[in-house]
Request: fold
Amino acid sequence: MKNTARKKKLREVGPTTQLTLADVIRADLHEFVISAGTAALAAVLEHERTRLVGPRYVHLPGRHAHRAGSAPGELVMGGRRVQVRRPRARTVDGHEVELPTWAAFGAEDPLHERAVEQMLVGVSTRNYARSLEPVPDELAARGTSRSAVSRRFVAATEKQMAEWLGRDLCELDLVVLMIDGVFIEDHVLLVALGIASDGEKHVLGVREGATENAASCTALLADLRDRGMHTDRGVLAVIDGSKALAKAIRDVFGNRALIQRCQAHKARNVLDQLPEEMRPSVRQALRDAYGSADASRAKRLLANLVRRLRDEHPGAAASLEEGLDETLTVKRLDLPSKLERQLSTTNAIENLMGAVRRLTRRVKRWRGGRMILRWTVAAVADAAGRFRRITGARDGMTALVRALKDHENATNGATPRKQVA
Reply:
């Protein structure tokens, strides 16, 4: 045991070795802090009991409760439960009186939070106990076994999932919507990310399905609408080029939605269909087009590239031509360059999906779609805690809101093409 070994080492110091007070304190500092904290807790509990029942050995007429000795109890300490003596008080009719401090320190929430945090940073349930700070040998501890940690993680992520998938969205003034999917085993998890008019990013929802088809995408959007997401306003939808996603967005938002196809995905799809020696020149041509300040010039450059590729590489030409106009949607909105670059690709949600992949690849065995959904929600909730405002928001979001309002007015509030159940 670590504490015993440290004490033994101090005893084995030779007679000629000089120990300073700092050496002694440093060696047992952790144990000293825990012992002092335990003593302070005992004093606080006794003070609370005195306030409830009065001083010891003092006769108080009309006393409502009295001391009842102590009993074994458990408190949360350093990610485990430790056994300590619990002071007791009872009412005159025999009912137990709960001490507030004891109730606070005995709550399960800190244990659940610690289990989730350890899993998120890569500690397995098998190694959970090794990752905790040591406690003095005289404190009996439990709750660090693999099964106990797993139960706490499941309970915590179930609660987190219920909260995240049921949040009210009506207060969010969303102007940008991004949706992407990640495959885990034979399940696809669709994640929706929204950007509000102040540039803040928000994870809106997660949906589990078998494939990334229009039905799954529409079900996700319908759930977001039912939870308060406004679908009667203009929105910029940035997607990876999936036709299912585009169809679902138009079904829900109608003509109010402006579709921006991700330029990075488009370039990757085109380059993958070309021989290696052609890729550098085509890549530069795509950069020149997408980097143009004018949408008309960008479209002209892309059309020239299509003609250049059509005879020798018709597949790459067809890939570039398909949805070409939608890769230039943001460029037509006349936004500041920084914000335009951010909204021309799905990089914002790709980073979020990368966090999901990094966490879920640690799981060796999946036990159904609900487990996958729990882990996905845990991953996106953890990543959301580190979100920053989108680059260029300070100077560009006002222009984006104005452009969306102009588009909404131009479409005369066109209704969705079909009613979503």
